[in-house]
């Protein structure tokens, strides 16, 4: 082709395929150590010990929990900037120490970026900083072992979730973040409008207020993708979504965020609670077992006392709402009309020594779309799954598939589209939502939900 | 355990493991057909042909592009509601027709949900509805072959993207949707605040305006996760994100959405454009090749004329900005100070007969964080990748890693955290952003971007 030749002639066309990564990530070096081979690594110095003939540096590059020990002979030219926190490029020979530890004997060490603690670097070597302190430095905190390990586990858990659903032939759907539905009863919402007044002016139409100008309707951040999933499920079968959802609540507990991730699945042709519960229990056990296999070192780095929970080998307990109330009552805890509270949730989990499905909920405590029970029309076929540490981690239900019953409970005409799903080629479906951050709390033993994701947002906090 | 026995006694404890799916998805039936075996399927009737002794129904369940032909002997009891669009549960024996076509000879057919076209169902059998028409019925459109096929391809593409980065040891990071950064120069933003006035009143503090009450700062929907990725990259190495981003622009082209998905990757220790370009070219070719392997039938369903693009076997072309301008100039097209426009982008692609990297951009046309070229300080090490049909599909750059140079260009004090990333253990990085929907347009030949995702949002449109 003429033009390509032209490019080659003028020297601007180069062979992309010839560029490759020369250095190794530390995870690979540790996985298949090639003793005696020249090896290049790049990463950050996590600690330094100066001894008589050698300097020992522990270097990590974020690819795994472990550090690689670098042995630096003192006769090498050494940059003054080689300190804790600095970024380095090291070439050397891989070797085993007398004690059998893998180490890299450096031939060359190059400091890429210095790190002067006195210039304001907030972390110190060989110090375990409390999470509340680390959280003040969101932009730097992925450099701490604690947060880096959590983010690797978070990545692993999302991967296992996608793998689980791929095996079961579910289709991954990107449900929308912006929505004109505000009435799912799932909590308070954020509204959205353009920042730029010029845009609003230019788009203004008679009879519209500011809030509705851009989209033609008031627009909110999603609180759940479920209703949208149900629409797709009725054309494509089993589907799921894993994405951000939002609550504009003024709650500052260790269990709440303004922006968090939900896994939601909608199961086609699902006509029994047993089937729904089976999917949830299978999925949860799969996530826990797989992540313990793939990220054991990270789990220990996050919490040394982490161990396989007993309940992984047990069946989850199923408890009707009324019986749960009796259990709590017998312990002197009164369930009000608002339902089971957080303390009571944890009491039930403790009582059962396993995750508990609370089923057969009173209709008035649950959302309009939940299916009326066939054996008691004051109840709905809904479930909450309660787990240790966090209480509720999953909510789910069969969906009301009777057109007339749904119509009677529909909270707004804006949801007529949802009703219409039942009119044409309708099928029974059921589904659930699982809070990703709470799963991470239970799996890793993370007391505060703000440490389960890279950039937490909660009331008065939206840094960066 | 006492309590569990109690549950068993009261009949509320059931064996979860015993429930399993009895029917088969059509994708599995077609993949490994078990001729002669009793088979159950569930799905929707896509067409019906009544003949002398049999009714022929084509049934699809969303699991694949293909339909399964059902042969219904007329002596079976047949529900009047068995029509186009109805949902059905069929049991029968798998067989091969005289012509060798796989078919299911029905023993039993059960209509789960009727579909009466006269009641307002917008689609008709054996009719190819234009996408503009289908788009009016967002809640029902996944029942059309066109949209279902696109959503399967979208799922496949995201899976291939995750697989690509998993192989390369990148860590998947959930960058935030809510952000207090508004000044990346990437376009107009949406602002976010609680809908509930009571919440705002309760949280109001002296000196704050409404916009800032909830988070303590004005808060926007993200236009890019890049700056956040850069923070994580400097603790954990190679990272990427794949999630929704937003633009509050009043543009209604076939290439723009208010909410769309971006894949963004940040490459640690990346110090050359060649390396950056290699990753982009490899990734794109991987996506195209893998998706053509996994979803060939879907690609044909979307566009019968779809074929493997010639450029998959070619090196992408690289063209410095100034040369691109000369090429356009020679064709009588003038490049203004605002840069290359859409028509000119497509002209360049056509001229090169392949995707083109435009490199060596004038500094004033690009963002503050892009690295000043070492050979010409009026230029930055940035790239746009132009592709057929859509023009720009990827934008990327090396990042300015010189503290002083970055400080001089920093557009706002709110980004001091970003500057500080260069202060402690800094490393060279480079990265790019790729529009998922535009990739789908090129891959599938989809003229309008609104058909590449399940629930498109654009000015005056935020249905559901």
From TrEMBL, chains A, B:
Its EC number is 6.1.1.22. Residues 151-454 form the Aminoacyl-transfer RNA synthetases class-II family profile domain. One of its GO terms (biological process) is asparaginyl-tRNA aminoacylation. PROSITE patterns: AA_TRNA_LIGASE_II (PS50862). CDD domains: EcAsnRS_like_N (cd04318). One of its GO terms (molecular function) is asparagine-tRNA ligase activity. Keywords: Aminoacyl-tRNA synthetase, ATP-binding, Ligase, Nucleotide-binding, Protein biosynthesis. Gene3D superfamilies: Bira Bifunctional Protein, Domain 2 (3.30.930.10), Nucleic acid-binding proteins (2.40.50.140). GO terms for cellular component: mitochondrion. InterPro entries: Aa-tRNA-synt_II, aa-tRNA-synth_II, aa-tRNA-synth_II/BPL/LPL, Asn-tRNA-ligase, Asp/Asn-tRNA-synth_IIb, NA-bd_OB-fold, NA-bd_OB_tRNA. Pfam families: tRNA-synt_2, tRNA_anti-codon. Belongs to the class-II aminoacyl-tRNA synthetase family. This is asparagine--tRNA ligase.
């Amino acid at each position: 082709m003429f033009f390509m030749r032209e490019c080659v002639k003028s020297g601007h066309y180069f062979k992309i395929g010839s560029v490759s990564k020369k250095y190794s990530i530390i995870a690979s070096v540790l996985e298949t150590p090639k003793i005696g081979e020249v090896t290049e690594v790049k990463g950050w110095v996590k600690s330094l010990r100066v001894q008589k003939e050698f300097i020992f540096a522990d270097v990590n590059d974020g690819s795994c929990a472990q550090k690689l020990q670098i042995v630096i002979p003192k006769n090498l030219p050494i940059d003054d900037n080689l300190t804790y926190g600095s970024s380095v490029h090291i070439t050397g020979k891989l070797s085993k120490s007398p004690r059998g530890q893998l180490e890299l004997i450096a031939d060359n060490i190059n400091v890429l970026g210095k790190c002067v603690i006195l210039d304001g670097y907030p972390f110190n070597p060989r110090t375990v900083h409390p999470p509340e302190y680390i959280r003040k430095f969101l932009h730097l905190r992925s450099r701490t072992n604690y947060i880096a390990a959590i983010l690797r586990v978070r990545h692993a858990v999302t991967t296992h979730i996608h793998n689980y659903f791929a095996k079961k032939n579910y289709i991954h759907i990107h449900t929308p973040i912006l929505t004109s539905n505000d009435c799912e009863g799932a909590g308070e919402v954020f509204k959205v409008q353009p920042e730029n007044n010029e845009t609003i002016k230019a788009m203004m139409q008679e009879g519209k207020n500011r809030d509705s100008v851009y989209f033609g309707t008031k627009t909110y951040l999603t609180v759940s993708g479920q209703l949208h999933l149900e629409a797709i499920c009725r054309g494509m079968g089993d589907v799921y979504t894993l994405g951000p959802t939002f609550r504009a609540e003024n709650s500052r507990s260790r269990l709440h965020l303004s922006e968090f991730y939900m896994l939601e699945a909608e199961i086609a042709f699902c006509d029994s609670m047993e089937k729904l519960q089976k999917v949830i229990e299978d999925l949860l056990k799969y996530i826990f077992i797989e992540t313990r296999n793939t990220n054991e070192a990270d789990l220990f780095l996050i919490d040394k006392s982490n161990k396989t929970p007993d309940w992984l080998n047990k069946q989850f307990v199923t408890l009707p709402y009324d019986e749960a109330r009796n259990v709590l009552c017998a312990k002197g805890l009164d369930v009000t009309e608002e339902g089971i509270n957080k303390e009571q949730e944890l009491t039930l989990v403790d009582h059962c020594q396993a995750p508990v499905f609370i089923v057969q909920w009173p209709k008035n405590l649950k959302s309009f779309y939940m299916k009326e029970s066939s054996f008691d029309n004051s109840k709905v076929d809904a479930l909450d799954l309660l787990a240790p540490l966090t209480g509720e981690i999953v909510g789910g239900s069969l969906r009301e598939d009777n057109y007339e019953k749904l119509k009677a409970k529909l909270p707004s005409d804006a949801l007529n589209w949802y009703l219409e799903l039942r009119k044409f080629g309708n099928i029974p479906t059921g589904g659930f939502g699982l809070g990703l951050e709470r799963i991470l709390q239970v799996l890793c033993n993370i007391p505060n939900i703000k440490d389960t994701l890279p950039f937490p947002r909660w009331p008065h906090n939206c840094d960066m």
